[in-house]
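Appendix B. Raw example, untouched.
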Amino acid sequence: MRLEISTTQDVFRLAQVFTISRGSRTEARVLTVQVRDGGLTGRGECVPYARYGETPESVAAQIEGLPGQFDRAALQELLPPGAARNAVDCALWDLAAKQAGRRVWELAGLPAPRPEITAYTLSLDSAQAMEAQAARHAHRPLLKIKLGTPDDMPRLEAVRRGAPKARIIVDANEGWSAEIYADLAPHLVRLGVALVEQPLPAGEDDALVGLDRPVPLCADESCHDRASLPALRGKYDLVNIKLDKTGGLTEALKLREAAEAEGYGIFVGCMVGSSLAMAPAVLLAQGAAFTDLDGPLLLAEDRAHALKYDAAGVHPPEAALWG
């Protein structure tokens, strides 16, 4: 199919400064892709991520370098897994839905989606400030905290005090060692931590092989697409599937199927983006062990027809937003 593709850089203000061990931000910078065929337009969004060597400019250049004629299957070979392919792939799904007059889940042969409970991420801060954050969000059933610093335990203890009934997942952001995890594990169990994401740096996680895992471990930076799976054996219990890592919904659905076949639990995560970025991931998250699609909840502003969040979780997108 011959397509017209355009990209724009969009900025969404955050509701508050958001900090992880790698730094702080006050806004979400995203790339919006529009794919036009005749009078119809499909949209997708990606978040270029410096951790993977991406910038808005490099991702835009990848997209602008695409030929004028291709389809979703060809795209998987034209671009590598990553943000650029994600935005185009999701835009093509949106376009196909508009062309067919159906929803994306119907085209993909998926059941009609339902709301999914999502984690809410607390920004890294002092223990006192994180306790106050946790108390403000104690009504949420699942909280996620970013750790990976020498002061992790006081922060974790503070969050548990602030939200005594919430389930907690911890993202170490590659900031621990196997020894640190082993030392912390009894305390994580005591404090009711349900999951730890990526405790060791990707590429240095062989130390996890054979390690006792009383708290399940989830591969994030170590898992991008199906090609990542062989290297995860014996190290992790779950995989974190993000569209910006897989390069779109097409590969994400295949990764989920392959990971489940190998016995991994499914965690569906996100970068900090708008509702347009989260919308395809809601389909992917159906029935997942953990869902972390809270990007829009961290924003001070969002797109029109934004996703709905309530006590039932994050709801499937309206057709006017995506799919």
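End of appendix B.
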